[in-house]
Structures are given as structure tokens and as C-alpha cells.
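Homework help board

Subject: predicted structure for assignment chain

Our instructor gave us this sequence and asked us to write out the predicted structure in C-alpha cell form, then describe one feature. I got the C-alpha cells but I'm not sure how to describe them. Can anyone check?
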Amino acid sequence: MSLVVRDAREADFTRISAIYGEHVRHGLASFEELAPSAGEMVERWRAITARGLPYLVAEADGVLEGYSYAGPYRARSAYRFTLENSVYVAPDRARGGVGSLLLAELIRRCEAGPWRQMVAVIGDSANTASIAVHRKLGFRPVGTLVGVGFKHGRWVDSVLMQRELREGDRAPPLEA
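My C-alpha cell output:
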């Protein structure tokens, strides 16, 4: 089986919504508690790509196995060179390399732009697979927000990890 990473298309959002919905309903990676509709997911995709940010999918033999995207880390203007990444993999494809492939390509695409930092906000400090993928791709832990979410009847941490894009903060940004 050969995995291919490509830009997401509107036709992908039935499958993207199904993958995300599984994570929302059964997991702790997302702090959403109600799965958004495919239409809502399309609107989110449009907002991301309208900013010139990547939104990617991984496909194996015509089946969409996961997706990733980069979005603004925070809304205030001084954060404009910092991105937050999101990576979601179909539950039956977890630990199969899909997440690593998606995140590596996402980083590569973001390094081609003006951005200088990427932040991962990982739901659940027990999410060792996501933490390991991020560490493998150059992220370092920068903190844990303890018990900031309450989902599935328990308090959930957020693990913060960060990675420089290109020269990070050692040079001025490419544009103001």
C-alpha cells in the first residue's frame, strides 16, 4: 500500500468529517464534544486555505486515511508568524505512519511560507503516540496545561510542544 499526501478537496469532507467525528465522540485529542457536520468542516477548510495555509490529506489506494492542517495559533496580530498544527488519522490506521507523513509534509509546506514557529496543542498527556510523532519531527515539550478540559467524565491535560520553522526567531520575519 502506498500513501500519497495531497491538498484536501471539498469532496474529501465526508471522510474527513467521519474521521474527526470518531475522535470527537470517542477520543481526547479534540476538546470539541459535538462532532461538526461535513458542511461545517468545509467552512473551516475554506477559512484555513483562504489564509494561504495548507490543509492536507493522506490517501492509500484511493481511501483517505487522515488529514492535517495548519491554522493561526492565536488571533492577535503579533502571533501572525506562529501556527498551530492539527493531525487526525483514521482510528484503524493509528500507529501506521500516516500521522508522521502528514505532519512532515505540513511542516515542509509551512517552512515555504513566512511562518517561524509551529505549536502543537496535544489533547491528553497520555497521548504518547502524538507526542512521539511530534518529538520525532523536531518538536520539543514546552509545557503541560493540567486539567484544562473535561471530557468523557474526566479532566484532560493539554501538552504544548513547539518547533521552529526555518530559522525561527533568529532572524526577522519575511514580511511585516
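Reply (TA_rk): Your C-alpha cells look well-formed. For the description, you could write something like this. The first helix runs from residue 13 to 26. That's the kind of observation they're looking for.
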